[in-house]
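Q: I have 78 residues here and want to know how they pack in 3D. Can you give me a structure?
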Amino acid sequence: MSDINTLSFEEAMRELEATVGKLETGEATLEESIALYERGAALRAHCEARLREAEARVEKITLAANGQPVGTEPAEGL
């Protein structure tokens, strides 16, 4: 298993989906299910953090009165 902190958002989502799939089958032992649940919770938290980081970097283009771009500012609600 790879270190969650090194995973991209997409990699973590794929692993989270696979983890949920394994839990849904009901074929894992109790100990395996607990380990899968804990890893899934950590993956979910990592994905949420990566999304917050991405949202913080989103900017909107500001326009002058004549419609020409003049710069950027943080997107609303961040």
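Q: Anything worth noting?
A: The chain has a mean pLDDT of 87. The chain has one domain: 4-74.
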